[in-house]
Amino acid sequence: AQSVAQPEDQVNVAEGNPLTVKCTYSVSGNPYLFWYVQYPNRGLQFLLKYITGDNLVKGSYGFEAEFNKSQTSFHLKKPSALVSDSALYFCAVRDGNSGYALNFGKGTSLLVTP
Amino acid sequence: SQTIHQWPATLVQPVGSPLSLECTVEGTSNPNLYWYRQAAGRGLQLLFYSVGIGQISSEVPQNLSASRPQDRQFILSSKKLLLSDSGFYLCAGGTLTNEKLFFGSGTQLSVL
To answer: Per-residue confidence at B61, pLDDT binned at 50, 70, 90?
Structure first.
C-alpha cells in the first residue's frame, strides 16, 4: 500500500522569503505525486503533479515541486511567499502500477506573516 | 472543466440515525470518484473509491458504505450513525487522462 508523510504540522515563513513544505512517500510501483491546497471550510484545489519526465514540476500560483527518487521525496517550494499562500497543504500519492486509490498526507499548515 | 456537487453543506444527526450524502459530477464521463473524511480540519482519510458504476473499493472497515448507481453519482451511506462518524466529508472526482482530482465543497457532519 502507498503512503505519504508530511513531517511538519506547521511551517511559518515571512512574506517574501522562500518556502518549503516537505513530503516523503512510500509506494511499491511508480509514484504519481500531487500537491493540493485547502482554504478554510473548503474542498481541496489541485496545485501540481508529477507523473513522469522532468523532476522539477511547476504548478499553480508560482509553486513548484521537485521529485527526488533516491530520497523518495516531493517537496513543495515557492521562491517568494505571499500572505495569501497561508493555507493547509496536502501531498498525495498514487501507485501508477496498480489501483486507483489516492492517499493523502496529514497536511501541513502554512502561515505566511507580513 | 469538471465540477463536483456535494450536499448538504452541514448536517446534524442523532446517534443511530441513517445517513445519505450525495455527490454528483458535471463536465466529464466515467470519472473515478472518491469519498474522503477529514477529521478536525487536518488529514484526509480515503474511505471509498469507485472506477465505474456499481464498482466500489473500500479502504477502511467502518460503519459506512458507498454506492454508485449512475456514472456521475456517488453516495455515502450509513444505516446507524456513530459519534465517531462526525467529520468533514469530501467527495472528489477525476479521470486518468489528466490525473487531477476536483473536490466538492464538503459536508460537515455532526453526530450528537
So the answer is: low
